[in-house]
Structures are given as C-alpha cells and as structure tokens.
Amino acid sequence: MVSPASAPIADLLAARRPGHSLPAGLYTRQDVFDADLQVFFGQHWILAGLECELREPGDVQTLDIGRASVILLRDDDLQIRAFHNVCRHRGARLLKAGPGVVSRLVCPYHQWTYDTDGSLLHAGHMGADFDRGCKSLKPVALRLVGGLIYICLSDNPPKDIDVLAQTMEPRLAPYGLREAKVAHQTDVIEHGNWKLTMENNRECYHCAGSHPELCVSFIAYDFGFDAATMSPDERARAEAHVAEREAREARWEAEGHPSRTVARVVDCATNFRTQRLAIAGKGESHTPDASAASAKLLGSMTRKDLGDTHLWHHNGWNHFMGDHAVCSIVIPLGPDSTLVRTKWLVHQDAVEGVDYDLHKLTSVWIATTDQDAELVRVSHAGVQDPAYEPGPYSRHTEQELDNFAGWYVDRMRVHGY
C-alpha cells in the first residue's frame, strides 16, 4: 500500500471528496508546493501590484514568486511594463525584491545596461558583431484592470482574463485607483500553506468568534447561514436582511452602481468573484466605528454609503469603499509559509493627520490579518497531524471553499497532475 507521504500527486487529487477539505499531502508536501507554484503562480494570472505604485517614469517594484522574479516598472513613455528579472548575459538578478527608482536597469555583475522599455543599451567587450537587438529583457504577460496589475509567467496566458477585465473595469472606475496612493503597507508571514490562507479568507463562518473588529462593519448573514438551526427570531432577522440586501442591490444597480454577484469560480482558468455588500453600523467603511476613515473620497466617488465592492481571486482579496481601499496579495513562500501583503489606498491628495488618521484607516484589517495568521497557523499544524482526515464543509457558510478546492483539483489535472 502506498503511503500518503509518497503517493503520486494524482492519487491525492483523486482522493479529494466533494464537499470536503483536501487530503493532507496537498497542503503539506514539498512536491505539491512545487507543482502549485508551477501551475497557479506560473500558468495563471496573478495579482501582482497596483498602477499607483508606479507613478513616475523609472518607478519600479520587483516581486519574487518562487524561483521566478518579475520587474514591474513605468517606462519613459509612462507605460507600465513587466520583465523577467534576469540579465540576458549570464542570468544574474538585476534588482532586489521591493520598490525602487531607476533611470536604467544595470546588471550588478557585468554592467549590461537596459532601457526602461527592456531594450539592451550597453554590453561591453562583446565584440563589434554582437547584436544587442536580440538580447532585450524577456517580457512578462501583463494586464491592467482598473488600476490593478495582473501578470502571468506563461507564454500562453489564459484568455479568460478578458472576463475579469470586462467585469471589473466599470466597477472600479469610480474609485480612481490609478490615481490613488498607498498610505500604508504590511507584510505578514502566515505559517501555513497558501491554500489554507485562501480558504480562511473565503468564509466568514469563523468571523464572529475571531474578528471582533471586523464584525463592526461586516454583516455575517451576507456570508451564509443555516436557517434550519436558527431560532424563529434569528431566522426572521436573517431573512429580513437577505430581502433588504436584494432590494438595496437592485436600487444600487438602477442608480448605475454595479453590485450584483459575478462569480467565475469553477470551470474556468481565471478564478474571481465580485459583489457589492452593505457595511454594517454607520455603513461607510471598515474602521473601528464603521465611519469613513478619509475625508477625501477616492476617485470620483461622492457618496460614503455605497458599501464595499469585494473582489476575490486565487491569490488575494480586495475591498473598495468610498473613502479607501484595502488590497491583499498572497504569495506562497514554502509548503508551510505564505506572505500576505496588504496595502491601504487613499485619494492621492489625502494628507495623513489632516484628511485621515492612519490608525483608524488601518487598525481593523491589521487586527484581522493578524488574527487570520493565527488561524492559518493552527490549521496547518492540524493538517500535519496523523489524526487529520478531510472534514466536511458547511453547505451554508463554506460553499466557496468547496468551489475553490474543486477548482484547484480541476486546474491541477488540466496541467497534467
């Protein structure tokens, strides 16, 4: 009998039961992690950054993804470009991970020099017959969607990114993300597999017991409930909320604010889900009292009461509100280690201490991310335990986890596992 520790990945995928979490090896094994990087972070579109981080010519962000590294920059013609962070001479890294400003890209090894459009400008001692024209930096597939930067490391990126773009461009346009600015950023290392990070984010079953700060502005009923187990009063409140949500959604749509759920989470390559949800309490923003954090609203927004436009994809989540936005990017670091990079965006002219208080702006999602990191840690510890066996998802509050697990298995098989 083949042990789970050495079973082929295909056997682990075949063992996954619909409606249940994944077999342990799909969360814990190094060979599965390597396959995940190759499939989901090499062959699919991933959220990599924000256009507003590359405001001026020469602004650059370098992102490491497994063994790959990608340079995002704004060139001298103000176009955003993406390149593999590999010198065309002998492969040295051009830039370290993180932000920076460059006038040219100069290899630290032998000083081969590239223009911001990727063309090779200088390569010393290569002979008079050396053709610089065929040694430009290798481009990375790039798609700009409403101010978000998506990249794909494949030479044949999925074409259904068009659906995401067509859906999100009109939804994101009023927020003016391309002209926003990053007010704050945190990097949190979660000690768990990236799929556990994504699963944790795709349900709010745990919210009431784990996220007191977030629950001030989140409405738990929006993320599912089991009416059969509720008291009559609880069921009446939940059903009233659903009716109110549907009426509000229709009203927002009629007023020209796209709100209805668009979900491409199964039978697709580019996985995403979006909807506009009301904010609880004062109804304006994800802050300690649910009131707006910034006096200057984003983009062309004129109202604070238009809720929270959510956008989930397979390596992150986003919340777009009238006064600010929160964008989180997930990058796997190892089978048991995941980077969650969160950015808070405000209007480009908003001034800290005048238009917004940084603590009010950031405290809810800082607390929530730290709490989630602990939940992911205990989840990963559990799936490593010999006693672990895949457990059943709630049909009422964890359907998105079942969708994600099914999509994961399907995409692995599409790519030969």
Automatic annotation (TrEMBL):
Transmembrane segments: none
Cofactor: Fe cation
GO MF, one annotated term: dioxygenase activity
Domain spans labelled Rieske: 45-151
Gene3D superfamilies in alphabetical order: Naphthalene 1,2-dioxygenase Alpha Subunit, Chain A, domain 1, Rieske [2Fe-2S] iron-sulphur domain
InterPro entries associated with the record: Rieske_2Fe-2S, Rieske_2Fe-2S_sf, Ring_hydroxy_dOase_asu_C_dom, Rng_hydr_dOase-A
Keywords: 2Fe-2S, Dioxygenase, Iron, Iron-sulfur, Metal-binding, Oxidoreductase
Family to which the UniProt record says this protein belongs: Belongs to the bacterial ring-hydroxylating dioxygenase alpha subunit family.
Protein's UniProt name: Aromatic ring-hydroxylating dioxygenase subunit alpha
Organism lineage string: Bacteria, Pseudomonadati, Pseudomonadota, Betaproteobacteria, Burkholderiales
